[in-house]
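Justification of resources, computational component.

The compute hours requested in this renewal are based largely on the per-chain cost of generating structure records like the one below. Each record pairs the submitted sequence with a full structure-token output. That output is archived, and it is also reused by downstream analysis tasks.
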Amino acid sequence: MTARQTLLAYRGVFLLFILVIVGGLIFSQMVTLFVTPVIYLWLEWFQEHVLDRVPFLRSAHFHEHEFTHKPDVRHPAPATTS
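The structure output for this chain reads:
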């Protein structure tokens, strides 16, 4: 068997190999461009709505005025003496 005959015999394997490589590159690019930003947006939402409520876990961008709430009407503030 000559080198040319060997290459022709394995042409299908080489084409499949190239197809798998190119498909993997396209898939990884799609994950990078579309899936990764969604994960980061979800993590940002989780940090802002869950972790920033715990004083120990607050991030540096935490703004106290965003999370102030009205006093609970069932538990009024204690009266002060003046």
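The longest helix spans residues 11-49. The CA atoms of residues 44 and 51 lie 10 Å apart.
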